[in-house]
Structures are given as C-alpha cells and as structure tokens.
Design brief:
The structure is a homodimer.
Chain A: E1 8-13, H1 21-34, E2 40-43, H2 46-51, E3 55-57, H3 58-61, H4 65-72, H5 94-105, E4 108-115, H6 117-132, E5 138-143, H7 159-177, E6 184-190, H8 197-200, E7 215-217, H9 225-238, E8 241-247, H10 280-292, E9 295-300, H11 304-307, H12 314-332, E10 338-346, E11 351-358, H13 383-389, E12 401-402, E13 405-406
Helix pairs in contact in A: 1-12, 9-10
Chain lengths: ~400, ~400
C-alpha cells in the first residue's frame, strides 16, 4: 500500500548509450534516496535482464558521494542495456505476468526506464497493462537519446553532449584537414538515422577561429549526386580544403540510404532498425574522387560521438540529472504512464524546466529538423538551428583524471 | 655575420599533424624572442611554401601571451605543412640555390624544422648543402610524430598525446561496447604504419575501472587468421564482449597489409607512403562475422588520434615546447645538422631531458616496438611497454572553452 514515501523503486537503462544516461540514473537514485525509498533496485541489462531476474541494489552499491560524481562522468549504461521489445499483450501475456510478479516480489512501487523511443514504448505498454490489471505501480519514462528525435520535449538528454563532441571534434578535424596547401575534400560521417539533429550540430564548430563545415547533409534533404558535385566543385574554386559533415542517414530521392550503395550494409536490430549505417562518408568520398579527381578522405565519428563523456556538456549532464529526479517526483505525485520532458522557457538567457506528457503521445514517433531551420539550397543549417543548439553545449564537467585517463565507475 | 645573439630565425612545420606540433613552435618562438632574435619568420606550408616565397613574421603575429596559450591548445600546424621531399642535390641543385638565396635575402641565421622522419631528411640535406657551400646558417631538426618511430630519442613529441587520446577513447569505447549482454567483438583501428607504438598505447586503458582491450595487434607481429580466430573464440567463452585494438599496419606473414585485402586501398603520398591505410578493422570485423557468426563492429580512430588537442597530454605539451626551445639553444651554441632528442633519466619519478644527435643518424630510419615488450603469444603488449608509455600521458592542459567549444588560434 502507498504511504507518504515513494516505496521501493526500480530503475533501468535501455537502448543505445549516451554520455549522460548515467547522469539520469544518478538523478533517479539521489531523488529516491532523498524521499527515503527503502530500496532502490536497478535492472541489470534493462527490462530483458530484469525478466531473467537480474537486478542490483543500487543503495548498497553506491555508498560514497564520490561514486555519484564518477557516475556523472561515466559514459554508456552503468546498469547495462538491452534492445528488447515487449510483445503485444493480446498475443503474449507471458512477459507481463513475469514482470508484474517480479514487481510484487520486490514490492516495487515505481518503475523508471531511461531510454529513447523504443524504451518509451516499453513504459507505455507496462503502464497500460498496469492500468488494465488495477496495479498501483507507477511507470515513468526518462528520455535519453543522442538522436534528439523524441516528440514533445524541447530536446533530449544526451543530445547536447553529442553535439558538443561533434562541434569540438569538427574543429580539430578541420585544423587537421586544412594543413596542406592542396585541394582536398574531407567527409565526416555523423550519426542520425532519420533525423539530422546530430549532423546539424556540426554548424557549432563555426566561430572566429573556424569556418565550420562547408556543407552539412541531412536525412531530411534528398540527395542528388549532380547538385552535390556541382556544389563541391564550386566550393573548391574559392578554398582548397572543403569540409563536409554528412549524416549517416542521407538518402537518395528514392529513399535509398547512401551507405547501402557501398558494400557491407548494416544489420537489423530487434526493432528492425539498421544498427550501423556506416558507409555514407565512404560513398561520398568515392563519388568525389572519381568525379572531381581530387583527394578525398572519409572520417567516421562512429560510436565515439555518443560515449565521449570526457567532453560532455555540463548543461546536458545537469538536465539529464534533473529529468531523472523529476521522474521520481512525478511518481511521488501519483503520475504514471508519463515521460518527463524539457520545456525551454527562453533562449537568452537559456532556461529550461522539466514537465511531463502522456507517454502514448511520444512512443514510436520521430521528430525531424524543421524545414525552416535548413538552408535554402539544402546543404547547411541556418541561424535558427544554431540558436536552438548552441545553449545545449555550454559548460563542462572536468573528468577526474587518474594515472592519465578519465576515471569511470563500473558495476 | 654572427653576433652574440642568434640573429634572424626561420621555423617551419612539416609532415602530418599532431596535437602538440604547435607547442614546439611556441617553444622555438619564445626561446628566440628571449634571445632577442630581430626577426622570427615562419614558413607557410613548410619548405615547399617557403620555396615559393611564402613566409610570415611570427613576432608581428603573436603579440599577446594569450596567443601562445592558444597555440599550445591548437592541433595540427599553425603555419601549415607540406610533404615535400628535397631532391638529391647531385641531380637537381635548383631548390637548394633558391632556398639559400631566400635565407640570404631575409638574413636568416638559423632554420628550425619541426617534423618526423621525412622532415629530418630535409634538415640533413640542407645542413649538408650548407656545409658544402661554406654557409654559417645553422639547421636544427625538432622531432614530432605521433608514430614515435624516430631513432635515438626516448620518444617523440606528439606520441604522448596520441597515446593519451587512444587510452581515454578506448575506455569510452569499451564502456559503449559492453553495454548489451550479447556476444560481440569490437575492433578499433589505430594509426601506425610500420610500428605498433600507437596500437600498443591501447594497453593504457587498463585500470581498476577497465580491463582494457583483450587483444592488441601490432605491425611487428605477422598476422595469422587461424591463430587470431582461435584466440577470439577462446576469449568469447569467458566474456561476451571482446575488444580488439588493431594497428592499421598489421600485415600477413607475406607482408601484405590487411587493409589491402579489402576494397578501397590507400593512395601514395610524395614519399611513396600509403597516406591512408584504413580498412584493417573492417577486414578483421568481416573475418570474425563470417567465421565466428558473431556481431562485430569496426571503429576507426582515424585522424582524431593525432589532432585531439582537447585531450592532449600535459607532459607531451611541455616536452614539445622544451624540444623547440632546446633547438634554439643548440643553434645559439653553434650546432647545425642536429636533431633535438629526449633522454629519459628515470622512470620513477619520470624525468626526461633534451639532448641532440647528428641528424644523419636519424633520418629515414624507423624504430619499432622491441620484441621483448610484446606478449609471448604476440597478441598484446606487456608490462615493460606500459612502464615506458604510462608517464608520457600524465597531466592535462585544460582547453579554453568559448561558447561551448575549445578555442584555437589560426593564421
């Protein structure tokens, strides 16, 4: 039965890593502690691991406040993750019965699931099942994804750090690529399956000391080889070293991913998504070399952009922590079947507060870059995009260096 | 004519970028200033640019001490670089006559060239020509290369920062790759054409919070697919997520680069080197997937490992600065045709001092990882390697963040 407190809580992490998914875990953990939750359990390897009875007692593991500081600086999922999709209960009630029996065994009163689109689907299904079976357990989704493609939130925790990494690395790549007085084209491949939020963040490299990328290719804009080559050729007439930031999700007019036009396409994950789209930069680089007869290099920013905690955004870490804590507060207030959101109150000064929305409104939908934030010719983002993204990469949280490398925490 | 001072000096940067080549430039610049050099010229785009009359006046460009602080934090070559090889003067005296006429025009008394093996060849040829023609101009080489393959120096500036980047990034990659409770193999491709110094640095990821890579493949050890697959298979029986650090220079017993076994081999640069060996990790990843039926991901650390100034080693920056300053001191002392070296005086505490060697002893030779620093089965480095490399990644120099990204200086 409910008391004034929150009761035992259970928290899990799901989906792909980010630099700040553990900051949300820290937020859930410390908020639950401050409400005197008797037990704070963590799912090991997400809902899939928990289904097999894998859980840990976070309140016993995290004794020292230093552990929380390390957690804020540790990328990926401290608790492990999964890409498990709950079945339609009309077809298979098994996992639901198992899960709710486990909730009962551990007297769980609130469940928090930190994840992206697919994880919000899990929370939606669990809360619907709970409602249908008269359970009083509260289910709250805590958003995270570097892809920034969740609806009804200004942005998602994880995006700011990925954007900061991309901006900082693009500056270094541009220094590196501009070193010779020779014609060259560098193509940096950036994550983002169906939305160009991450590729667009390459614009943040621009400043008094750096021109930023000369072109940014987004999944939102169909790719035309002719237009592309014409633009690269024109750019090279005014500067020898051309830099292109290309989303891994760039597609032709027919909807074919560029990376599928080179050998070694990706594999499907449990959600039917391509798990690795790598190849777009190689395709573009080959296209340039064979048509413009100019040296071209493909660089894949790869998984580093989602797990570079050493270069995380302080704003992002703070917000990730706050959405975790706000989830606990929402559950304490009796809410269920909701996702915590971030609502931007102002750009200057940047101010953002947490809110919640019905999770059904969020699950399985994707938010793309608005057309009016993309340059008219489709090869860059404009000032509106920068105004949106720039505040999200402000501030740093110094890594704790031990013996030459950043120290992390592990289970 | 020589006076008590050093006279006008000329400094250039050559070869591939590093995170600290500008720290050596700062060392040359500040040492020359402290000796009241009337003019401090910089070659624009190395000796090749200078041959075309491209130079800048550093003493006019770098007014504020903040400029030097930014230079210490700016990757790649502030002055631009080249990959130009001076011809054998017996066959073509032209470039020598042009260069020495330019030296005379600007009354240059000392020339400093910051670079790797090939750049030391340039200094060797210039000083030989100078000696043969009775010139009193002094030529000093300032070593830099992330490859760490120069002879007669304990290590080269640039290596420590690349090693620190590799160690830190491998820790983050391992966090990222171990997130699911699934069998997987991650292959991270690390630079190093003919020597395994960089790949070996992946061992520095190991510590209380990280097991480090499970295997390290070096160019020094011939690759056998059978032995490799057997080892990966054995590793997977004790842990689901296997991590491999592989040098881009790994070769078969017949001396064939693994990257040449996949499509899209590299291009030759002016020195006849492959300028991009990318493909080794893809080859290994494909080999694993097709033989062990297990998910495998290829990650290329790419150019980021040589230009990640945001994660540079303070030890490396300090030493790079000191070899630059020591070069000026060597020239002031009347030396020519020499390269500055680093001599390690002790491991605990780590102490290193500068020295000089005859440049002919260095040019065009390559230093590889000693056989007794490699594990007996050839798939890792041992404690002797770590003892050598660990001191080189100690310490940090905080980037100067402006508006969310590290600020650099540019010409």
């Amino acid at each position: 039965m409910m008391t004034n407190g929150i009761g035992n809580v259970l928290v899990g992490q799901s989906g792909g890593p980010t630099a700040v998914i553990n900051a949300s875990l820290a937020g859930v953990y410390e908020a639950a502690r401050s409400l005197d939750a008797p037990r704070i359990y963590g799912m090991k390897y997400g809902i899939q691991g928990f289904l097999q009875g894998n859980l840990v007692e976070l309140d016993k593991l995290l004794g020292d406040k230093l552990d929380v500081e390390l957690m804020l600086r540790t990328p990926s999922s401290y608790l492990g993750s999964c890409r498990y999709k709950l079945p339609d209960p009309a077809q298979d009630e098994g996992p639901y019965r198992t899960l709710f029996a486990l909730f009962e065994r551990y007297d769980i009163r609130a469940v928090f699931y930190i994840g992206g689109n697919d994880s919000m689907d899990t929370i939606a299904r669990l809360s619907a099942w709970g409602r249908a079976t008269g359970s009083s357990i509260r289910f709250i989704g805590v958003p995270k994804t570097i892809d920034n493609d969740l609806m009804l939130t200004d942005h998602t925790p994880g995006y700011g750090s990925a954007a900061k990494y991309i901006a900082a690395i693009m500056k270094e790549v541009i220094c590196d690529s501009s070193v010779y007085d020779l014609r060259s084209v560098t193509v940096a491949e950036i994550m983002g399956r169906h939305a160009g939020w991450l590729a667009g963040a390459a614009c943040l490299a621009c400043g008094p000391d750096c021109d930023g990328p000369d072109m940014i290719l987004l999944p939102e804009v169909p790719f035309s080889p002719e237009t592309f080559l014409r633009k690269v050729d024109a750019l090279q007439r005014s500067k020898p070293n051309v830099i292109i930031a290309a989303s891994e999700g760039v597609r032709t007019r027919d909807g074919v991913f560029l990376c599928d036009l080179v050998s070694g396409g990706g594999q499907l994950d449990a959600f039917g998504h391509k798990s690795m789209l790598s190849g777009t930069s190689r395709y573009l680089s080959d296209l340039i070399q064979s048509n413009l007869g100019c040296k071209s290099r493909a660089i894949e920013l790869s998984t580093l952009q989602r797990c570079a905690s050493h270069l995380a955004s302080r704003t992002d870490i703070d917000e990730a922590y706050r959405v975790g804590a706000a989830a606990v507060e929402a559950a304490r207030g009796g809410l269920t079947g909701r996702m915590v959101t971030l609502r931007r109150m102002s750009d200057v000064p940047y101010q953002c507060v947490t809110g919640t929305v019905e999770i059904e409104q969020v699950a399985n939908l994707e938010k793309t870059v608005p057309a009016d934030w993309i340059a008219a010719d489709g090869t860059h983002v404009n000032a509106a995009f920068e105004q949106y993204a720039r505040p999200l990469i402000q501030g740093e949280l110094s890594p704790i260096f031990v013996n030459g490398t950043p120290r992390h925490i592990r289970l």
